[in-house]
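Bumping with the actual sequence this time:
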Amino acid sequence: MILVTAAHGNQGRLLVPKLLAAGLPVRACVQTEASAARLRALGATDVVVGDLTEPATLTRAVRGVERIYHVGPTLHPRERDMGFAVVDAARAEGVRHFVFSSVLHAITTDLVQHEIKRDVEEHLLSAGLEFTILQPANYMLPLKLRPVFERGVFELSWSLERRQSLVDLGDVTDVAFTVLTDGERHAGATYELVGPGRYTAYELGEIITRVLGRPVEVREIDADTYLRAWVGDTDPRQVTHQVRVLRAITARYSSHDFVGNANVLTWLLRRPPTTFEEYVRDQYAAYTRGDSPWT
């Protein structure tokens, strides 16, 4: 049995169908009944609903599991506690292989979410479990492309001149599938997952313009505007952790590039990683057909 946490998140909604298609037993853990219903529609039959910081939910989730793919839910204020709890429960259950989705350059601790994932990495390294750690770069996300397709505006909440490396979620979940199904070969490994290229926002805008065949405006927005894209018009006092995370991203990415190298991902995939242009073409085709899995 393979447990996938945050199973209807960015990675989970792609990884779970790949595991099910291979005939593997999968338990999906999600936080809401709405997410559970969507996963069941994809073929998942073993779904646990609840917060993994709650002992009862965690006990149900890890019971009888041999392998775990743990993704800390984006912007969850107790992500660190959750990561520690899942590692501890895996050790108590005798899980054979724990795969943790961390982040590229987790040692960059002025980024709040990096510090959290770095701490979970350290806890996992000390747990005595067989492990693999994946460290993906910033995702190529449909959330950032929808305003482009709909309004012709590409927005980022940091300096448009800074360079960033990106990675396709399809490539990340292909690697996760490989690691989960061939664990012995990848035991004890930490892999940086980075796609090709190091782009400024303007260069990304040029690529999108070429794909769409029409001009695209590139615009810098502030962290609070970006926050509203994630949590709506919620009072910032009620989402203090999310505010800290997004403001730290804006500050760091406005003062430093965030780049990596595609060699490891190329080796793991045994093919060239997806380029940003290929990704945009695929997403735009799905958008125009009205069959994007992200809607």
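The tokens above came from a reply further down the thread. The chain has a mean pLDDT of 91.
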